[in-house]
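Dear colleagues,

As part of the handover before I leave the project, I'm documenting each prediction I ran so the next person doesn't have to rerun anything. This entry is a single chain, and its sequence is reproduced below.
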Amino acid sequence: MAILIGLIPALAWGLLPISIAKTGGKPANQILGTTAGTLIIALALLVFTRHVISARTFILSFLSGALWVVGQLGQYQAYTRLGVSGTMPVSTGLQLTGTSLIGVFVFGEWPGIQEKLIGFSALAIVIIGIYLTSLKRKTPVSKVDKKSLLILVLTTLGYLAYSSIPKITDRAGTAIFFPQALGMFIAANIYILFSRQTPVYRAAVSWKNMLSGVLFSIGALAYILSAHLNGIATGFVLSQLCVVVSTIGGIVILREQKTRVELAAAGIGLGLIILGSAATAFL
């Protein structure tokens, strides 16, 4: 059951970029709609669950949600400088490595030498697989400069905080989801106000992106549970199977064009991602 819960974020977060691509809009529209949809789901859950949490847990959960927005927006900026094919292998590789290191060395996961050897070998296989799925021959990758790398590092820090903070709270599951969603929504609005993009509030596409918030909510709730049931290291690697869903969805639903070499590389990459993730699931 724990593994099945760990796979729910992969499905929901894999469909998320498909939903955003279909809906359209600029990053500000997308971040507003996604966080608004997430907050509505969180409020609905709050009415039915009525959790009581400590001030410390509320603040930590709120902070993790706000830092998720920092990570998401940082990734958008990296896309413009490095391109998606240049950003995704680096960003996802950093996230996987960072989250696994936190799980192992901070929270004591994969305790034995054999577990560490298998875990990090599997992690390397997943990273290679992600690189292959994003391989593009026709689209040149922008030159990596110091500013672009800094953006990716900041992105990674935001995502790492979001992924890891739930582990140090004294409550799990839906108890911390509302403060997380509130942190996301407030951080998104601060960004919109300070970047002077207030016209997005009147744009219909912003609110259409609330469906993406529903998908994100499903994945986020499942990830919170998975982090406690499977541990951060294994839970996060399982969640990154979203690359499989989004890659297949991009080809089938969005009809992204790929050469034969790109399709072959993507197929091999998806196989490696599944293999590596399966290995971590049994640690």
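The chain has twelve helices and no strands. Residues 55-82 form the longest helix (28 residues).

All the best with the project,
I.
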